[in-house]
Amino acid sequence: xxxxxxxxxxxxxLIYGLGKSGQSSLSFLKKKKNKIYLYDDNKKNIFNANQxxxxxxxAIIISPGIDINKCKLSNYLKENLDIIxxxxxxxYSFNKNQSITITGTNGKSTTCRLLYEVLKKxxxxxxxxGNIGKPILSFKKFNKKTLFVIEASSYQxxxxxxxxxxxxxxLNISPDHLERHKTVQKYVNAKFKLLHNQSKNSFGLINKNDxxxxxxxxxxxxxxxxxLVDTALENKFLKKLENKNFLSRSNIENLSFxxxxxxxxxxxxxxxxxxxxxxxxxKYRQQVIFKxxxxxxxxxxxxxxxxxxxxxxxEKKNIYWLIGGIPKKGDKxxxxxxxxxxxKGYIFGRNQKKFLLDLQNKIQIKRFLNxxxxxxxxxxxxxxDKLKKKTILFSPAAASFDNFKNFEDRGKYFxxxxxxxxxx
Length: 424
What we know:
The protein contains 16 helices and 16 strands. It is α/β, with parallel strands linked by helices. The protein folds into three domains: about 10-85, Rossmann fold, CATH 3.40.50; about 95-280, Mur-like, catalytic domain (UDP-N-acetylmuramoyl-L-alanine:D-glutamate ligase, 3-Layer(aba) Sandwich); about 285-424, Mur ligase, C-terminal domain (Protein-Tyrosine Phosphatase, Chain A, Alpha-Beta Complex), CATH 3.90.190. The chain starts with 11 loop residues before the first strand and ends with a helix.
């Protein structure tokens, strides 16, 4: 990487957490003549807690998955908050390339991927990384003109101190990750660090139709130029896109930001339209995996909260909704009453109490111990449904860690169930 910094060169640095992010930080920082120490709550034979506490550290690089309130070195980290950094901070210290950083509760990955494809179509040298899967420190071959599209989660932003992005976008905000952030305000503050850290000649794009975002904006001043994005696109433009699988209400919001950001880079309308027409969306994010004249099956395993499921619940009719997992603390089911009649709920898993409290007396409910049992009953029920068009929606609105490694593992399992159904 280009540039120089004395913050992460020839220092004593602890890397806490050895997942993808931690491994990429290790690979990068060890080339900068640093003395690296490693710690992971779930790994042995690295350094133990007592050893770490005796080392005069200059910096601690914390992985996004580490919650300093619950990890093994919790007290130690709290005592050393001033030297805690993230891989985003390291990236910025050595690299001043233009970056476009996107955060929000829902739609981050889809927006980043679509923007990346649009810029690539326009012949920009562009990289896609961050929370979307490829750690930001894993990129090696690029030059001063390379653009970076970065997905940033609240976990990454919470402890970042140095990171700045010339273009920053906050798509939307609804209560999420409160089991870690504790309050909605702390969660919102983590997201807004993107704007607070920007310099002059930078641009902060926000959703003008999101009340939480607008309320926060009105209470603060920012150095960057704040741009309000209207997420209600004109129908004339949508008709040119001809991508029915992609243009859900939530994806139209994502597209609104892509269009606004594309204008900064003078992307041609023709390139933009071509990319959107051919965009397949992201795996397990409102992904249509089966469709015939009577049934449409949507795999939305990425959904980990009510707010991410509700856009589809509003759009479709006669919905068979598979919901279950570990519900999010503070999550609320906010859906107008007129939609209830179109939804039949199939709750699966061991953590059903919150779903029952939220959904009873609103929609029809059946309960199951696991996803397989729920699916087997649903696939039988749908055979007796005489309505012409039906939607099977796998949108769990909960975390996956009760029975699956992650939402991808959960989505893959659901696809296997559907595959056996289609074969039968």
